[in-house]
Amino acid sequence: MLDQLMKLPMCKGLSQGEATELASIARESQAKKGTVLFAQGAHGDSILVVLEGQIEVSMSGQTLAQVGEGSVLGEMSLLGEGGKRTATATVLSDARLLEIDAARFQELLKTSHLAALKVVANLAQVMSKRLLAMNEKLIEGNKGKKEELADFQKILSNWSF
Amino acid sequence: MTSAEATAHYFKKAARIMDVGERIETLLAAPLREVKVQVSIELDNGEIRTFDGYRVQHDNSRGPMKGGLRYHPEVDSDEVLSLASLMTWKTAVVNLPFGGAKGGIRVDPIGLSSKELERLTRKFVDQIQDIIGPTRDIPAPDVNTNPQVMAWIMDQYSKYHGHSPAVVTGKPIDLYGSRGREAATGRGLLYIAREIARDVGLPVKGTRFAVQGFGNVGSHAARLVHEDGGIIVAVSDVNGGVKNPKGLDVPALFDHARKTGSVKGFGGGVPCGSEELLTCDCDVLIPAALGSVLTRSVAAEVRAKIILEGANAPCTPEADEVFEKKGVLVVPDILANAGGVTVSYFEWVQNLQHVTWDEDRVNTELEKLMREAYERVANISRTRKLPLRTSAYVLAIGRVGKATVLRGI
Questions:
Q1: Secondary structure (3-state) at B1
Q2: pLDDT digits 0-9 by tens, B102-156
Q3: Where are the domains of chain A?
Q4: Among the partner residues A149, A152, A159, nearest to B394 by beta-carbon distance
Q5: What is the CATH number of domain A2-159?
Q6: Which CATH number does B184-331 carry?
Q7: Confidence band of A144 (pLDDT split at 50, 70, 90)
Q8: What CATH number does domain B30-165 carry, 2.60.40.290, 3.40.50.10860, 1.20.1250.20, 3.40.50.1100?
Q9: B-chain residues within 8 Å CB-CB of A149?
Q10: CB pairs below 8 Å between A and B: how many?
């Protein structure tokens, strides 16, 4: 479990000892195929790390992704912004998971625990990358709209009426 | 495929050849406004009856919307919408400053007295007077409506908005109607026949024509083609028809039709059924009666080299493909029978300017617009190697598209 934990992007830079401390607030669990780990709209108070198996992430009935070993679900809850789950996670094949309780993680953070601070810094990096990608997507999306009209104008002039 | 579905089919075919994209396609196909009203009147016997009335306004990017108003027991919103879009493309092909609309009342007018029809028409105007008008939407005669109905519309509309002859076209000559309006569609067909004759080297003079339908369109087309030296080898109407491979005596045929109400039984030829006419030996076929008469199987038997669509949608899309393979030239309805709406436009212009044109001027201007439209369509057909119908839709989509983009989406 420790090895798998240390391989996660959010645990980048953690020493063996720090990882062990993080593991101490984590709980390993098993989930059978078909289990709903959490549902969209439900209150989220923990982060889930997939150690084994396949999980489907869906939003309003539409599949967003299928994730496997090493993937992290619900990391926002660690930052105290848990709130409601934005998607539903369903187990596709029997899975082994690691659950980190958000409240206990917050306690570590309050005492300036190095492991917790490193995890937060890593999560911030992951999220800033996602934000960048989202921005690009948004710009791309707007460009697409403008081009649709421009393309039509081009077509009209190409056909020369 | 119904004739309503056919319009959408041809539009899509052209839009995809132009590759305008799905969203632009949706934007151009969707109607601006669909209105349904309940028209209640008291019949002569004191009974109260309620009828469904429709007006669909398809597109106004090129100007006020224009289209007929029909009284028919099978009128429904799908049919009216499709015909409204057909008007958008038709007015665009002839480059009139109009958009497209269509309307109707679901009623069998045969069962109504003249007084009941008048009440129905006036009541309908009461309910749509705020969405029609000389700068909004200008109705015209269609199936089972005539100049008298248009006169009632003008009168009723004017009670709300003041003297407004330009609110409707196809009015009686004595009440702001235009000279040349009655024969306009038939005359437009003749002008197109002349143009295509020049293109394929088959002058109207001496060419054999068969005309299905002897109403407002077919009768004038036959008369004018005959006057131009064409040979009318067959005509038919709802009651029957007549053919003569050497050519019918058209003035005598008109006398016969005036006396008996039909071309059936005319002595100058042998009887010929309406369907038989479509496959008779001729050079040019003018279907000027109903829609969907030329199906895939009939099309395979057609011997004409050129088809001028006098009616709306006489060829099914399947028949259209057969003709394309056989190399038969089909001049599509949105070009061939656009003479009617073109002279309607002239009527509107005269009404707005408070002037009256003589018939020569009407015909000269009509010839100019029909010729220009044909040249544009034929040019697209030549350069892009497309059938005339697709080319006409391409031209229409281009013109409507340009106006839409210039105004701003």
A1: coil
A2: 999 999 999 999 999 999 999 999 999 999 999 999 999 999 999 999 999 999 9
A3: 2-159
A4: A159
A5: 2.60.120.10
A6: 3.40.50.720
A7: low
A8: 3.40.50.10860
A9: 405, 409
A10: 29
